[in-house]
Amino acid sequence: MLESFLSSLFPNQLCVLFGVSLTLFAAAEIGYRMGARVPPKEDHAFQNEISGYQSAVLGLLALLLGFTFSMALNHYNLRCSLIIQEANSIRTTWLRTSFLPGETREISRKLLRGYVNHRINQDIPGSNHQEDLGQISILQKALWQQAEKAAAIAPNPITASYITSLNETIDLASTRLAAHRVRVPGALWMILMIVSIFGIWSSGFSSGVNGKRALFLTVGLPGLITLVLLLIADLNSPTRGLIRTDYSCMTDLRNSMNP
């Protein structure tokens, strides 16, 4: 429920950029004005106490940002790794079709060409992912039916090796689909936003109490936090953003399969 709400709240990277930045800038300005209304105090203990609160919140924010960035980067690296593994598995399956008897060889090769096209389309923005998943399932069943026919015609270790590689290809498709659906939890995004807002507010409040508008704390820091959150959101999404998953191994495989 929370995941779908966040997706509707930030449908693309521009919404994340402007929505988060405006929220943080507003928090900094509100904090500054609230701090400016506090009667000036000469004792340094009060100012030191405020600085301590500010440091604690910003330290917690830095810890959360580092943890979330590491999580999103691991998800991105996992998706890239699975694409390479799947491309290698499909290539092995393709090569082993040469051992299939008669008509099953040509039909299996034709099915594998279509299968690679749909596997590439899985993460392409604008494509119908549900339709691709349906076609992938149909192609997997058709490939397995051809493997059953080949096993009935030529029940030997060579045919068994083809079936093993085909089974690995199908398993990797399921694994990659599961990795495609893994995201940074919505609760973590909410905590990040709450801590970010409170941290920026405390920075603005500290500037207001001191009577000096520190541009880095009220302008620069919100901008930097927004960029980090944008980078995390980019790594977290396989179908949106500037950081795209590398499909060169899949496209090279498709080119090598063309007659």
Can you describe what's shown?
α3 packs antiparallel against α6, α4 runs antiparallel to α5 and α7 runs antiparallel to α8. This protein is an all-alpha fold and 259 residues long. It has one domain. 82% of the residues lie in helices and 0% in strands. The longest helix has 53 residues. The protein starts with a helix and ends with a helix.
Write the layout of secondary structure elements.
Layout: H1 2-9, H2 13-36, H3 44-96, H4 102-121, H5 129-153, H6 157-181, H7 186-210, H8 215-236, H9 248-257
Quick take:
This protein is mostly helical and 259 residues long. The chain is 82% helix and 0% strand.
Q: What structural class do the secondary elements suggest?
A: mainly alpha
Average of pLDDT = 84
Overall 3D shape:
rod-shaped
Main sheet: strands, sense, barrel: none
Number of helices: 9
Helix % is: over 70%
Number of domains: 1
The radius of gyration computed from the alpha-carbon positions, rounded to a whole number of angstroms, is 27 Å
Distance, first to last CA: 47 Å
Low-pLDDT windows of residues: none
Strand content: under 5%
β-strand number:
0
SSE string, helices as H and strands as E? HHHHHHHHH
Key phrases:
259 residues; mainly alpha; 82% helix
